[in-house]
Amino acid sequence: MSTSQSHVNRNFPSRSISQITNEIEEITDEELVKQVNELKHQIKVLTLENEVFERTMTRLDPTLLHGIQQALDYATRLNSNSSLNVGSFVRSQTSKLFFESLTSPSRMFASPSKISTKRAESSARVGGTIMFGTGPKINVLERSEIVSAEMEILMANLELMRKKAAKQHALLKAQLEELELRVEHIQNFREEFYKEVVVEGWDKIAQRIPAEIWVRYMNEWLKITDRKIGKFRLRTSTLNTQYSKLKGQIKIKAELSEHLRPVDFEKIKIENNECLSIIDKKLQQLAELKKMTGDANLTLSIHKKALMEQNIYLNEVISNVKRKQKQTVSLNKETEIIETQAKGLAVKLDDIKKLRNAYEVPDIMDYVHVKAEIADLKLSVKLLQNRLRILQIALSSHHRKLTKMSLES
Questions:
Q1: Within-domain flag for 124
Q2: What average pLDDT is seen over the chain?
Q3: 292 vs 288: CA distance, rounded Å
Q4: I want to staple 6 with a disulfide (CB 3.0 to 4.6 A). Which of 22, 133, 160, 383 is the partner?
Q5: Least-confidence region, from 182-196, 229-243, 248-262
């Protein structure tokens, strides 16, 4: 604040308007733009410094800010009207004592009680000189200390806000996922309700949906919902139990961390060294076991290859045995058939032998008589067949005559 006030006081009107006009006319447009940009930059820097000082004063002792706005208003009026009484405002504002904490960082970070005890001593010295830019000033080192302290506070607040924002983001994300699941469940329920109740439950005769279908569907849906609620309750109780256990473990660890002593760290260090030595031994044993496992795997692969070859040979032998068995069965069937045929042929052979043994050559005259009888019989058969044909023709003609007569009558 003192920096901005000293800047205002340095710009206190001590030259005439004609001189300022002449200086402005002497500079070029580029120089004027450059000076304006520099002034804007200085204003930004002073505004930032004033914000830092105001935050520091608000954090340390908010009562120091009483009267600052009146001082700024008075400086503005003083810049426009130089005939005002400066001493009256200084006397009215010396009781506020808001500039004492800016003399050094050690005073700014001191307790309010120490500041209040030194107000009376520095009131006359500060009040008479601060309005004209000759009061206490803050050097670069003190400014850097104030800015670094304020930056640490801002970074701490920013980290807290980041954590809070991360928690809020996670909460909102979980809520969005929950809403998406709810929307999906509602859409599925709507489609299922429309399909089972509205479409399939429509009674074409009564032109309405029977109440029994709706009640049955709602009862089934309520049963399914009760089962899901039971599962969710069980899961929630499980999660609450796990949360309580973790909370208890965290509390126990916090209590243990409060009662830790250097001896405990030495003890843990010794235990860690013992564990490391045990781990090294186990790693060596693991390496040896890996080596043994590699040798065993190599031997196993060799035996496995030999076993696969034996299995292939065994499968070939089994297939040959099955094929031979099938051939044996077919040969047995053929043998049975051949034996049956041989028995039948043997019987025929015996009959032929018996017939041959009992056969006698007939007499020639008997043969001639038998042939003559056969010829006579064939002739009589032909005559009888001709008679039968003639009778059938006569029968058919009589039948036609009878049919014709019956139709005429």
A1: no
A2: 78
A3: 6
A4: 133
A5: 248-262
Please report whether residue 152 resides in a domain: no
Query: Between 28 and 269, whose confidence is greater?
Result: 269
Rounded to the nearest 10°, the torsion over CA 117, 121, 127, 128 is 180
Q: How many domains does the chain have?
A: 1
State pLDDT tens for residues 360-402.
666 778 778 888 899 999 999 999 999 999 999 999 988 888 8
> Residue 221: inside a domain, yes or no?
yes
The two tokens of residue 7 are: 């800047």
Contacts of 74 (CB under 8 A, 6+ apart): 84, 89
Q: Is-contact 55 150, C-beta < 8 A?
A: yes
Count of positions (residues) in the chain: 409
This prediction has a pTM of 0.36
Model pLDDT, residue 237? 93
Residue 7 confidence (pLDDT) above 70:
no
Cβ contact 101:57 at 8 Å: yes
91 sits in the region (left: phi over 0; alpha: psi -120 to 50; else beta) called: alpha
Task: Report how far residue 95's alpha carbon sits from residue 362's, in angstroms, rounded to the nearest whole number.
Answer: 179
